[in-house]
């Protein structure tokens, strides 16, 4: 280290974890989306409440994207058996659970003034809650298995099967009578969203996608560093046996 | 499984059995959802004509949810009470059900909006004490055409 700046190692670590270009792009995308969402016109019926759509809808779509990535990464892991695909599947599922929870919370906040209730037992809300809990189960499964290969195999299969929830959630508003409105954009007919609102929504989707990529990449780097640390501790400098008089540290801490 | 698989055949067979059992259960569940009469129990609200058709079979006071559009020019507000008609279609040809709603109507309530009401039959009137406004999928700036 030739530099005398004491913050330099911290900055280097932050760069290694978060990267340099992607956080800047995500921040820019969020700033642009926020501006567009605030500048877009109010709705003729809901008024300012429509602005919650720019969080609720992208959050739900990003969650769908995340579970799709978990599905594909799981399939590729089953095919190639490389640990990086398991890390991608896990990181994406974590992000997906976060965005599902965000969509449910923002939907409740929107539903209270619009519908008159925070929650109702209609098909879209119930299937979304199920989706949330199924992927919480995925995360629980990952914590329940110690062996990395067994964990990767079981969670890959879980991730593939659990993805069936995503089309169920999307089509729930078409298959059953619901209080929740049917799709405005992801439908065969033309979008049912007026000019400035559609632009703001698409910019928000871009911002959420950038955030998702950033979160997943950061989580993957942290998980990889954690795994490397585990390996280093297991095969590291401490004598395993022979000259060990006291019990090894790993035993004592359990 | 290929010859390269290091796992003993017993484990592979057990996993295959588990996978087949899971697939089978899932197939039955999906089949029930799609084709079974389960759909009859998953109805979130009844349309006005369905509600009228079921009225004879129901005992007085059976609670259910009625959904439809608030008929134009039918809203009459009285102290603590709103009377209006729920119809199945915006035109004049829809089946209409008179509704007596007690309580404060939801913020976006008005003629032409979709509502889901919880309550029961009281004679020919549907008496309700719980209202949810159904927002449709159309988002438009004000003054952009369409029914306001």
CA-CA gap between termini of chain B: 63 Å
- Calculate the mean pLDDT score of chain B and round it: 81
Number of domains of chain A: 1
Give the topology string of chain B: H per helix, E per strand.
HHHEEEEEE
Spans of at least 5 consecutive residues with low confidence of chain A: none
Largest sheet of chain A: none
SSE ordering of chain A: HHHHHHHHH
Helix percent band of chain B: 25-40%
Given the helix and strand composition of chain A, which structural class is it?
mainly alpha
Task: Describe the main β-sheet of chain B briefly.
Answer: 5 strands, mixed, barrel
- Report the uncertain regions of chain B: none
- Give me the secondary-structure category of chain B: alpha+beta
- Spatial ordering of strands, largest sheet of chain B: 1-3-4-6-5
Characterize the structure shown:
- Chain B: Its main location: membrane.
- Chain B: Keywords: Cytochrome c-type biogenesis, Heme, Iron, Membrane, Metal-binding, Signal-anchor, Transmembrane, Transmembrane helix.
- Chain B: Pfam families: CcmE.
- Chain B: It is found in: Membrane.
- Chain B: It comes from Pseudonocardia ammonioxydans.
- Chain A: Belongs to the CcmC/CycZ/HelC family.
- The complex is a heterodimer of chains A (254) and B (148).
- Chain A is mainly α and 254 residues long.
- Chain A has one domain (20-179, 196-217).
- Chain A is 72% helix and 0% strand.
- The relative contact order of chain A is 0.15.
- With 148 residues, chain B is α+β, with helices and mostly antiparallel strands.
- Chain B has two domains: 9-39; 44-134, OB fold (Dihydrolipoamide Acetyltransferase, E2P) (Beta Barrel).
- Helices cover 26% and strands 29% of the residues of chain B.
- Chain B has helices at 9-35, 38-41, 48-55, and strands at 64-70, 76-78, 81-87, 96-102, 114-122, 125-134.
- The N and C termini of chain B lie far apart (63 Å).
- The mean pLDDT of chain B is 81.
């Amino acid at each position: 280290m030739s530099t005398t700046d004491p913050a330099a190692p911290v900055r280097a670590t932050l760069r290694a974890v978060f990267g340099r270009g992607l956080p800047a792009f995500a921040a820019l995308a969020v700033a642009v989306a926020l501006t567009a969402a605030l500048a877009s016109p109010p709705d003729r019926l809901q008024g300012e409440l429509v602005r919650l759509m720019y969080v609720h809808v992208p959050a739900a779509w990003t969650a769908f994207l995340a579970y799709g990535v978990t599905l594909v990464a799981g399939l590729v892991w089953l095919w190639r058996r490389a640990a990086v695909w398991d890390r991608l599947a896990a990181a994406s599922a974590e992000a997906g659970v976060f965005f599902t929870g965000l969509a449910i919370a923002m939907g409740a906040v929107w539903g209270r003034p619009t519908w008159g209730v925070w929650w109702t037992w209609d098909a879209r809300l119930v299937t979304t809650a199920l989706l949330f809990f199924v992927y919480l189960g995925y995360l629980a499964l990952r914590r329940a298995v110690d062996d990395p290969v067994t964990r990767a195999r079981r969670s890959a299969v879980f991730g593939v099967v659990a993805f069936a929830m995503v089309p169920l959630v999307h089509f729930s508003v078409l298959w059953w009578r619901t209080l929740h409105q049917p799709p405005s954009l992801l439908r065969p007919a033309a979008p049912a969203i007026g000019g400035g609102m559609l632009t703001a929504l698409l910019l928000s989707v871009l911002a959420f996608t950038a955030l998702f990529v950033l979160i997943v990449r950061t989580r993957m780097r942290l998980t990889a560093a954690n795994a490397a640390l585990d390996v280093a501790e297991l095969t590291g400098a401490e004598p395993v046996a022979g000259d060990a008089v006291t019990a090894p540290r790993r035993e004592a801490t359990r | 499984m290929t010859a390269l698989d290091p796992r003993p055949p017993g484990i592979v067979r057990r996993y295959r059995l588990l996978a087949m059992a899971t697939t089978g259960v899932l197939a039955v569940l999906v089949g029930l959802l799609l084709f079974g009469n389960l759909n009859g129990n998953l109805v979130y609200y009844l349309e006005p004509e369905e509600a009228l058709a079921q009225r004879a079979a129901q005992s007085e006071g059976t609670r259910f949810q009625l959904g439809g559009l608030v008929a134009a020019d039918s809203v009459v507000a009285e102290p603590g009470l709103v009377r209006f008609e729920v119809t199945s279609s915006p035109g004049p040809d829809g089946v209409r059900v008179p509704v007596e709603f007690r309580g404060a109507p939801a913020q976006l309530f008005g003629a032409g909006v979709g509502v889901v009401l919880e309550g029961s039959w009281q004679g020919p009137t549907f008496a309700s004490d719980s209202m949810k406004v159904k927002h449709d999928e159309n988002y438009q700036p004000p003054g952009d055409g369409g029914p306001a």
